[in-house]
Q: What sequence folds into this?
């Protein structure tokens, strides 16, 4: 007999068709700004600028614009002016609005969807100008076209005036000027980062040969930068190798164009051990690569092996050079422009067009073969560099075998100094990499054993910026870190096997501690960048001071906090202690200030601009002394010394 349990009674439902909300116009953007610009923090604020500048760059790529001026005004409002064709002012047949108002108020409206406005475009999704308008307290647009000036104003995406003719200009004076004030009720900050913006604008100028980009920051004392590169991405590669020793004087340059696409590649070898490769599609940075990168790498490996065989540098019984071998010490920029790019996802981080792989592979293969044949001395230097890398790779393979774990959670393979946690869910686990046995002992006593693991380091780890892979893997401290993380290494690296959701660098607040922290950051940035990219790496912020008044103790994390504290409190009857070493704290204090999730302060490590980060790591940690000396003397007055 089958019995059926009685169905529990449910409250009366009021869910009807009337509950379905339809957001009109740009209201959806204001309700969910993160869906359109990623976030409402500083990155989102910068994103507004990039959306408008991208439109101007599209005009430049179409051949109608050669100057863009970006101005940040003292109150945080921004103006972007270009000398392109100007947004069309005529009435749009479908919307019944002017083309200007259509572009600025309708999502996915623009000249980039096969309508003939642009053959190549970076702002592919067409939401840029309208989203900026929606998220701005006020916006003014001026279009100069056919001898007339047209203007219109908006507030939070809503037109305040009609598009109207407001004067005459010279017939050849054309372009668009957009001025906006970001809405302070939407954004968490209105503070722009001048250096970050400079890097992006410089990058745009490299990728758009012949375009002048002028950036003016009127806040404070004011700053101004102008960028113009006649040699385009070749200048970009020279900049990447500026602090390195190039193996040949000029970058190898490849340029090829078809009816639907164009390819530009510039690359140059240097004496370092790493690879720097930046790829772009329609001036959009493709940080996850794609078919254009695959085509380049395939051609590079094939041509260098063919040349090495033909020149008898590789004998018949010698194995081929691998992709890793031929890319050691390579600085490369790949820029493709195509009419119908297929990006994987809204974030546009990977190019998917299969046809571009063959186009890049053919263009690079032909150009590189010719260069090697015409310049045998350059060819020999590159091949010798690759052969040295191959020998190091084999030595590294043997060393790597010593540190690979058989299984993710097999404790017998864990380093002896690691005090592991009992939790098995990586998302709940934290690993503290701690400077010194003394601090490690305090951390082991203070931690929550359920989900917090501690790995003490003895002294300073190897500077991996100056070491090849095989030498690095001989270092016990680095082997312990790799083993504890469980991800494997090199070609065997697998981020899904990471044993800890948070990896926390915890060092003393003195010069030695800062050095150790920098060495660890260099290791992760160069050899486990995925750990940083996926948001797993953090820096602990132990307090610098404890202030005791009677039985009450207040922890202060930096000098600014100390100054603020004494603005509000009399210093009578107050005892203040400065902590230079983690070992100076007992276990209870370390838990309260640095390990307890309720109280602690952690800084997530992120790489906002890889080019700047790469140059900084190479300058500070590389072999060349002169760039480091110049950096130190330039920034000496900015240093905060704790003597």
A:
């Amino acid at each position: 007999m089958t019995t059926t349990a009685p169905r529990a009674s449910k409250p009366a439902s009021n869910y009807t068709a009337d509950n379905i909300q339809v957001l009109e116009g740009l209201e959806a953007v204001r309700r969910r700004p993160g869906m359109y610009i990623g976030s409402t923090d500083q990155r989102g604020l910068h994103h507004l600028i990039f959306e408008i500048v991208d439109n101007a760059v599209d005009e430049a790529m179409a051949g109608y614009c050669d100057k863009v001026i970006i101005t940040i005004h003292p109150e945080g409002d921004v103006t972007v002016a270009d000398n392109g064709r100007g947004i069309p002012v005529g009435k749009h047949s479908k919307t019944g609005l002017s083309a200007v108002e259509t572009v600025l108020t309708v999502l996915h409206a623009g000249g980039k969807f096969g309508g003939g406005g642009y053959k190549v475009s970076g702002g592919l999704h067409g939401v840029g100008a309208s989203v900026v308008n929606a998220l701005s307290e006020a916006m003014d647009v001026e279009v100069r076209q056919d001898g007339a000036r047209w203007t219109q104003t908006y507030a939070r995406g809503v037109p305040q005036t009609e598009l109207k003719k407001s004067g005459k200009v010279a017939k050849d004076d054309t372009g668009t000027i957009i001025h906006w004030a970001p809405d302070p009720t939407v954004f968490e900050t209105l503070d722009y980062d001048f250096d970050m913006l400079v890097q992006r604008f410089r990058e745009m100028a490299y990728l758009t040969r012949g375009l002048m980009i002028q950036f003016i920051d009127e806040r404070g004392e004011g700053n101004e930068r102008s960028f113009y590169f006649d040699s385009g991405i070749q200048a970009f590669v020279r900049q990447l190798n500026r602090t390195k020793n190039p193996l040949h004087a000029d970058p190898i340059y490849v340029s090829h164009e078809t009816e639907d696409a164009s390819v530009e590649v510039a690359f140059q070898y240097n004496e370092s051990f790493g690879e720097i490769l930046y790829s772009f599609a329609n001036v959009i940075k493709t940080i996850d690569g794609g078919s254009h990168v695959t085509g380049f790498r395939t051609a590079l490996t094939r041509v260098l092996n063919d040349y090495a065989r033909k020149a008898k540098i590789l004998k018949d019984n010698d194995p081929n050079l691998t992709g890793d071998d031929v890319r050691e010490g390579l600085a490369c920029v790949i820029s493709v422009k195509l009419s119908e790019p297929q990006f994987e996802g809204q974030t546009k981080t990977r190019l998917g067009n299969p046809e571009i792989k063959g186009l890049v592979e053919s263009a690079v293969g032909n150009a590189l073969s010719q260069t090697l044949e015409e310049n045998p001395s350059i060819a020999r230097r590159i091949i010798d560099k690759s052969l040295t890398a191959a020998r190091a790779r084999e030595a590294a393979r043997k060393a790597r075998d010593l540190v690979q774990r058989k299984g993710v959670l097999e404790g017998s393979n864990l380093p002896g100094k690691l005090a592991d946690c009992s939790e098995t869910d990586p998302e709940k686990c934290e690993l503290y990499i701690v400077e010194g046995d003394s601090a490690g002992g305090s951390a082991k006593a203070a931690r929550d054993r359920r989900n917090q693991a501690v790995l003490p380091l003895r002294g300073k780890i190897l500077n991996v910026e100056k070491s090849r892979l095989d030498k690095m893997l001989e270092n016990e401290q680095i082997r312990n870190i790799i083993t504890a993380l469980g991800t494997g290494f090199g070609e065997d690296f697998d981020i899904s096997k990471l044993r800890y959701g948070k990896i926390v660098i915890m060092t003393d607040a003195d010069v030695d501690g800062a050095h150790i922290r920098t060495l660890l950051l260099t290791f992760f940035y160069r050899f486990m960048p995925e750990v940083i990219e996926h948001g797993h790496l953090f820096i602990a912020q132990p307090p610098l001071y404890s202030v005791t008044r009677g039985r009450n103790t207040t922890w202060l994390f930096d000098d600014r906090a100390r100054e603020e504290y004494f603005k509000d409190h009399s210093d009578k009857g107050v005892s203040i202690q400065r902590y230079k070493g983690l070992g100076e704290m007992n276990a209870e204090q370390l838990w309260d200030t640095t390990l307890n999730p309720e109280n602690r302060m952690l800084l997530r490590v992120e790489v906002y601009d890889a080019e700047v980060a790469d140059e900084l790591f190479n300058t500070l940690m590389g072999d060349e002394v002169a760039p480091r000396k110049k950096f130190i003397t330039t920034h000496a007055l900015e240093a905060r010394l704790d003597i």
